[in-house]
# Entry
Amino acid sequence: MMLLSSKLSGPAVAVRTARRFRFVFADSMRRAVSIKRREAGADYRAGWMRARITSERQCGGECIVHIELPRPVSVEVAEQFIRDCPHYVAGTFAAVMR
# Structure
C-alpha cells in the first residue's frame, strides 16, 4: 500500500517593508536633559542597520524624528525596534511610504 501526501501552502502573506519611518520621542525643554535624551535615542538607533536621521522637528516637549535605512525592512520589525527606543512616545510609529 502506498501512502500519498501533499503539502498545500496557505495563502501568501505579503510582508510590508519600508526604508523610511517616523516616530516621536518625549523631549525636554531643559537643554541638558534634551541633549541626554537625544544622545540615548541616537545611540540606540545607530546600532540598528545604520539607521540615519533625515529630519527632526521640535514640537513643545516632543520631537518628531524621521529615519532612513539603507535597505527595506519589515514594518513590523522596525516598529518593535522603535517601540523599545528610549523615550519613545507610544502610538507614534509610522512607516513613510514614498
